[in-house]
Amino acid sequence: LFLGQVYTDASLLFNQNEFSKNVISLIREVIRISKNLNKPVVLKLHPKENHGSDPVLFRPYENLTHRKLLGAGIKESPNDKIFIDHTDRWSTYNLIEKSTLAVTINSQSGLEAMLLGKELICCGNSYYENLQSCNSVRDNKSLESTIKKVVVNGVKTNDQSECWNFFDFIR
Could you tell me if 39 and 30 are in contact, meaning their C-beta atoms sit under 8 angstroms apart? Predict the structure, then answer.
C-alpha cells in the first residue's frame, strides 16, 4: 500500500531528499518491486487532490498526482495487480487494515498505519521516522531490501505500544 500526499505539499517540497523530489519515480519503484515479488500494490492518492484546491492559488488540484502518473505511463491495471485510488473510492483506514505493509514519504497516514500495527516504510523526513517501529529508507536499494525483508521474510519491527506512547505524547 502506497500512501500518497498532495503532490505540492510543503512537506514534500521542502523535504528535499531523492524520493520527495520525485514522487513518481518512487511510485514506479514500488510498483517494480511489487511486480517482482508477484504482490499487488494499491496506490492511495491523497483525497484532497480529487476535490480540493491549492491553498495559495485557490486552483483545484484536479487529480494532480494521478495526471502525473498517467503522463509517466503508470495506470491502474488489475491484470498487473496495480490498483490506483485517485477518487477516494476506498477508505484509507480499510486499506491500511487489510495491508501487510505501507510505504509513504512522510504522510500522517504512515503513523496511522503503525498505530494499527502495520509495518511502515518511510521514504522521507517525518516527525515519526526515529521510532524503532518505522523503517526509514533513503534510496532504491534500501527500499527494495526493506520491502523484501517485510513481505518475503516476514520481519516485523512495529511495536504498537511505542507508537501509541508517541501518539499520546504528541497530541
Answer: no
pTM for the whole thing? Answer: 0.94
Taking only the tens place, the pLDDT of each residue in 115-157 is: 999 999 999 989 999 999 999 999 999 999 999 999 999 999 9
What the block records as the C-alpha cell of 16 is 528535499
In three-state secondary structure terms, 145 is helix
C-alpha cell at 118: 502495520
Q: Whole-angstrom Cα distance, residue 122 to residue 106?
A: 6
Beta strands in 20-87 (DSSP E): 41-44, 82-85
Q: What is the pLDDT of residue 135?
A: 97
Determine which helix (DSSP H) or strand (DSSP E) holds 142, and give its type and residue range.
helix 140-151
Please, which residues bridge with residue 102 across strands?
A: 120
Pairing of strands 119-122, 134-136: parallel
